[in-house]
Amino acid sequence: MERDEALKIVKGHLTDHRYIHTIGVMETAIALAGKNGADEKKAELAAIFHDYAKFRDKDEMKEIILSTPLEQDLLLYNMELWHAPVGALLVEKEVGIDDKEVLDAIKYHTSGRKGMTTLEKVIYLADYIEPNRSFPGVEEVRQIAETSLDEALIKALQNTIVFLMKKNQAIYPDTFYFYNSLIQNKRS
Ligand code: DGI
Ligand code: FE
Ligand code: FE
Asked: Which residue of 83, 117, 145, 170 has the fewest CB atoms within a 10 Å radius of its CB?
């Protein structure tokens, strides 16, 4: 699917603010893909649709999780996590995207998981550092991303885990698995 068509489809599902974020993720993801050896067209498509389900009704998302093979544990954690796996499912069903690598990059863009592919890492990091983001620590992660995808992700994960802990929130296990695998790969 070409960029213009994809953007036109996703625009109808997002607020203006979220659409601007999506454009930022798209541009950042293409640049990161080019630098780190991921497929730029797949990065573009995954970025465009990564937040496709962000504004779906919570009960609708819950119903989708309950009625599909998606991880049921998701229901025990922050609802903010749901739009990623549900989005991957709906992008396949409603938009007709069937590229598994693209769908997995959408599916894991919020939680991460152990053994993330380069494309999945690119989308995760692009979502975190795209130019419209402004929160404590983002500039440092942008700097690190100039030289190392994995080092930037380690910093981003540390920030996110500490941020969630300070808010007394549970951490989804895949987020820890992602973080641990980045640290362990560094040593080996
Ligand atoms: O959809 P976006 O706002 O662009 O960004 P996102 O998909 O990374 O969602 C971020 C939200 O997910 C943020 O409010 C933190 C929340 N969240 C809740 N529990 C977890 C979590 N994020 C991670 N990585 N792990 C969690 O366990
Ligand atoms: Fe998201
Ligand atoms: Fe996003």
From this structure: 170
